[in-house]
Amino acid sequence: MKILFVDDMTTVQMLYGQLLYDQGHQVILASSLTEALTLAREHRPPLAIVDFHMPEGNGAELTRALLAQPETANTLVLMHSQARDVVKQSLEAGAIDLIYKDDPHEVFLMRVAAVTHFIQTQAEQQRREAAARKREMEALERARAVEERARVELEERVAERTAELTQSNRQLTEEIEKRAHAETNLRLAHMVFQNTAEAIILTDPTGAIIDVNPAFSAISGYTREEAIGANPRDFKSGRHDDNFYAKMWNSVLSKGHWQGEVWDRRKNGEIYPKRLTINVVRDASNRIEHFVGIFSDISEDKATEMKLEQLAYYDPLTQLPNRMLFRDRLEHEFYSARRHKSRFAVCFIDLDRFKQVNDTLGHSAGDELLQHVAQRLEGCVRATDTVARLGGDEFTMILTEVGVSSDSVAHVAEKVLIELQKPMHIKGQEIFVGASIGISLFPENGEDFDTLTKNADVAMYQAKARGRGNFVFFSEDMNTRARERLMLESKLKKAIENEELSVFYQPKMEMYGGRLVGMEALARWVTRDGEEIPPTRFIPIAEETGLVGPLGDFVMRRAARDCKRWLDMGHPLRVAVNLSAREFLDPLLPERVDAILAEAQLPGEHFEIEITESMMMQDVEQAVHVLQELRARNITIAMDDFGTGYSSLSYLKQFPIHTLKIDRAFVKEAPDDPNDVAIVAAVLSVARAMDLKVVAEGVEESRQLALLRDHGCDELQGYLYAKPLNTDDFTQFLLHANAHGARQLQNLPASRFSA
Ligand SMILES: Nc1nc2c(ncn2[C@@H]2O[C@@H]3COP(=O)(O)O[C@H]4[C@@H](O)[C@H](n5cnc6c(=O)[nH]c(N)nc65)O[C@@H]4COP(=O)(O)O[C@H]3[C@H]2O)c(=O)[nH]1
C-alpha cells in the first residue's frame, strides 16, 4: 500500500521507512508539512503517518490540510508522536489513531497493519459495493434497453399500422372520389348526349340503332322511337354511289373510324349535307360492341362556303371569275395544255368608252354597261373557255384547245368586237362601246402566267394604238417595242423635269396677201445623247402615263411667253398649241389656260387651241362645255386633222369652233388624186357654209397652194413656207415673212376661177 511517512527527522524517516518497506508497502517520505501536502496530492496515498511535532506546523494542522484538499480527503492519517498529550488534538483534527514513537516497532507495525487492513477491507468493501452497483446499473441498463427496444418496436408497429390505416383511408377516399367522378362523368355524358347540338346515333354491331339523342331527331325529323331498330342506311339520300359507302365502311372497320361529308334524307324527304364521324367501340376481347355516329347538319355552312367562294373567286357585279380565279384557271390551263400538248390563248379586252359612260352617266350606268359586256363576252365563247373580269373595264378570256392555225381565236376575237360594237341600251340611252383586244398564245408567247398575260397586255396596247376596234396577236417585235417604250417613258419623265424639251413654231400664212398670221407650237425633244424623238412617239406615251399634263403646261407656257415677246416686238400673231384628249377633257383646263395667259400677260385673242375631232367626240357634252369656256376668253379653237375621223356634220354644228384644219394627208396627194381634191373642196365648202375658217396643213408645193387658193382656203401651213423653227429662227423669219408669203402667191399660176 502507498504510505506517506512524514517526519522532520531523517533517522526516523529511514528507520520507519525501512520497516514499512519490509512489510511490502510503498513508502513516500516527506520532511515537512508543505512537502507532505505536495507529495500527497501527487501520489494520493490511502494512509499517511504524520509526526506531530514538526518545525513548520504540527501534525494536527497537516491532518486538517490533508483532509481539506479534495485529492487527499480520503487519506487516513495516523498520528506519530513522542508526546502523550496530543491525542485529543490529533483526533479532533481528523486523525484516526495515534501511535507513540516509543511503542515497540511490532506495535507500530501492528497498528499500521490494522489500519491498512481496515483500509484494504474498506477498499474491498467499496470495490464490492461498486461492483454490485455496477452490476445493478448494468441490469438496470439492460432492462432499460429491453424496455427501449420494446418501446421502439411498439412505436414502429404503431407507425406501420398508422401508415396502413392512412393508406387504406387514402385508397378509400380515392375510390370514393373515383366513383363520384365516374358518376359525374356519367351524368355529364348523359347531359351531353341529351343536349349537344350534334346528332348521335348508337348502333349494335349489326348496325341496328339502339339509341339516338334529341339532336338527331331535331336534324333528321325522326323521333327516338322511330329511329331505334332502324339502320342508318335507311336515311340515305341516294347522292352517293355504293363505292362511296364501301370506302367509308372499309375505313371504319380497318382504322376504327371515318370522317367526312354525307348527304342524307330527312323524314320530310329533304336531302341535306352532314359532317359525320363514325367510331367503333370494342370490348375487352376486341370484339365490336357498338358503332357511334356523330354528325352535324352543315347545310348552312355549305351555303356560306359557296357564298364565300363566290365572293373570293367571282366578281360580284358581273358574276364572272375574278382575277384570282382567272389566275387559277390559267395555271390549270398551263398544266392541262402541257399534258395534252395543246395550245390555248389569253385575250385582254379593253373597252373604248367605259370611262366616258361612267363619268357622264354615272357609276350605276357604268355598272350596267359592264354587266352587258360580260353577257356579250360569255355569248362569244364555249363553255370550256373562261371569261373573267380583272377589275374596272379590264376583261380577259382564256380560249382553250386552240388549233395549230389560231383561226378559231381570230374568229372569237372578231365576234367579240362585233358584239361589243352593237349599241347597248343603258338608262334610256343608246351607247356604243367598242373594244380593243390583245391576244397571246401558249406556248409560243409565254409559258408562265406573268409572261403570257403581260404579252396579251402588250398586244392590247398595240391594238389600241392601231385605232380602236382591232384585235392584235402578240409578236416578239411588239415586246421589243414595249420595252423601248418603257425606257422612253422613264427618259421622258426626266426630260420634262430637266427641261430637255423645247418648242418650235411653224408659221401660218394668210392666203390672200400672204401675210404671217400665226404659228403652230410644236414640241421637240432632243435627248442628252443627241437623239431627236418625234412628238408622234413621245406624245402618246405622255398621254398614257399622265405626263401629258406637265408637258402641255410647259408648251403652253413657252408658246404664250414667246408670242407675247413677238407681240411686244410689234407682231400681233396667234400662237396655236395642240392639246391631247386628256388635257382637253380636264375640267380645270380653262383655269390652267387663264393662269398661263395671265403669267405671260398675253391676251386671249392671241392664243389658239388645236384639238382633233376624235377628241371632241369622246365626250361631246364636256367638249362643248370646255370650248364655250375657252371661247368666252377670246381664244380661237381649231379642229385639227379634219376629215380623218368619223364625226358627222350634225355634231360639228354643235361645237363652238372657229377653224377647220385640213389634214395634210389630203393635201399631200392633191392635186393629183381626184378623191383628195374632192375632199379638200368638200371641206372648204362645208366650212364656208358653216362660216368657219379653213387652214390647210402640209402645203409643200405651189400646185397644192394653187388648188387651195382656187377652193377658197383661208390660211396655209407647210414646208412651202417654213418647217417648224426654233425661237431664234422664227424671230428671223418674222422679219421677212410677209414678203416671203407674198412671193409665194405671186409665183402661182392664175386662178382657175379668176378668169
Ligand atoms: N410632211 C410634212 N409635214 C409637215 C409639213 N408642215 C408641217 N408638218 C408637220 O405636221 C405636223 C403638224 O402637227 P399636227 O398635225 O398638229 O400633229 C402633231 C401633233 O398632233 C403632235 N404634237 C406636236 N407637238 C405637240 C404638243 O405640244 N402637244 C400635243 N398634244 N401634241 C403635239 O405631234 C404631231 C406631229 O408633230 P410634228 O412631228 O411636229 O409634225 C408637225 C409638223 O412638223 C409639211 O409641209 N410636210
Automatic annotation (TrEMBL):
<dbReference type="InterPro" id="IPR000160">
    <property type="entry name" value="GGDEF_dom"/>
</dbReference>
<dbReference type="InterPro" id="IPR001610">
    <property type="entry name" value="PAC"/>
</dbReference>
<dbReference type="InterPro" id="IPR001789">
    <property type="entry name" value="Sig_transdc_resp-reg_receiver"/>
</dbReference>
<keyword id="KW-0597">Phosphoprotein</keyword>
<dbReference type="InterPro" id="IPR001633">
    <property type="entry name" value="EAL_dom"/>
</dbReference>
<feature type="domain" description="GGDEF">
    <location>
        <begin position="342"/>
        <end position="476"/>
    </location>
</feature>
<dbReference type="InterPro" id="IPR011006">
    <property type="entry name" value="CheY-like_superfamily"/>
</dbReference>
<dbReference type="InterPro" id="IPR000700">
    <property type="entry name" value="PAS-assoc_C"/>
</dbReference>
<dbReference type="InterPro" id="IPR000014">
    <property type="entry name" value="PAS"/>
</dbReference>
<feature type="modified residue" description="4-aspartylphosphate">
    <location>
        <position position="51"/>
    </location>
</feature>
<feature type="domain" description="EAL">
    <location>
        <begin position="485"/>
        <end position="738"/>
    </location>
</feature>
<dbReference type="Pfam" id="PF13426">
    <property type="entry name" value="PAS_9"/>
</dbReference>
<dbReference type="InterPro" id="IPR035965">
    <property type="entry name" value="PAS-like_dom_sf"/>
</dbReference>
<keyword id="KW-0175">Coiled coil</keyword>
<dbReference type="InterPro" id="IPR035919">
    <property type="entry name" value="EAL_sf"/>
</dbReference>
<feature type="coiled-coil region">
    <location>
        <begin position="120"/>
        <end position="171"/>
    </location>
</feature>
<dbReference type="InterPro" id="IPR043128">
    <property type="entry name" value="Rev_trsase/Diguanyl_cyclase"/>
</dbReference>
<protein>
    <submittedName>
        <fullName>Putative response regulator receiver modulated diguanylate cyclase/phosphodiesterase with PAS/PAC sensor</fullName>
    </submittedName>
</protein>
<dbReference type="GO" id="GO:0071111">
    <property type="term" value="F:cyclic-guanylate-specific phosphodiesterase activity"/>
</dbReference>
<dbReference type="Pfam" id="PF00563">
    <property type="entry name" value="EAL"/>
</dbReference>
<feature type="domain" description="PAC">
    <location>
        <begin position="258"/>
        <end position="310"/>
    </location>
</feature>
<feature type="domain" description="PAS">
    <location>
        <begin position="185"/>
        <end position="229"/>
    </location>
</feature>
<dbReference type="GO" id="GO:0071732">
    <property type="term" value="P:cellular response to nitric oxide"/>
</dbReference>
<dbReference type="InterPro" id="IPR029787">
    <property type="entry name" value="Nucleotide_cyclase"/>
</dbReference>
<dbReference type="GO" id="GO:0000160">
    <property type="term" value="P:phosphorelay signal transduction system"/>
</dbReference>
<dbReference type="InterPro" id="IPR052155">
    <property type="entry name" value="Biofilm_reg_signaling"/>
</dbReference>
<dbReference type="Pfam" id="PF00990">
    <property type="entry name" value="GGDEF"/>
</dbReference>
<dbReference type="Pfam" id="PF00072">
    <property type="entry name" value="Response_reg"/>
</dbReference>
<feature type="domain" description="Response regulatory">
    <location>
        <begin position="2"/>
        <end position="116"/>
    </location>
</feature>
